[in-house]
Amino acid sequence: MAEETIFSKIIRKEIPADVVYQDDLVxxxxxxxxxxxxxxLIIPNKLLPTVNDVKExxxxxxxxxxxVARKLAEQEGIAEDGYRLIVNCxxxxxxxxxxxxxxxxxxxxxxPMLVG
Length: 116
Prior knowledge:
By secondary structure, the chain is α+β, with helices and mostly antiparallel strands. It has one domain (about 5-105): 2-Layer Sandwich (HIT family, subunit A), CATH 3.30.428.10. The chain contains 2 helices and 5 strands; from the N terminus they run αβββαββ. GO terms for molecular function: catalytic activity.
């Protein structure tokens, strides 16, 4: 069984977060350490530690991450200029919280994908 994370507590509203979207499959909230003017985390409500843990039965939920990202980009006013979606996997991928999550970033030019 996967270890519960801070994100699980945000989903259940046990700790405060600036939640901007929630439904039966996903929850989205503002990052507490934003890297861009708009920086929202979109997470599945089901605890999946990494992308490596995604199964075929999770396809609807994973697709919802993208449709919610599109909706939030429109609401944030960043859809037309553009935005970036990032999903990190494991240590070399830069994952810090082991509850799969997508970063929605925008509101300024974001520069190259990788530096160095």
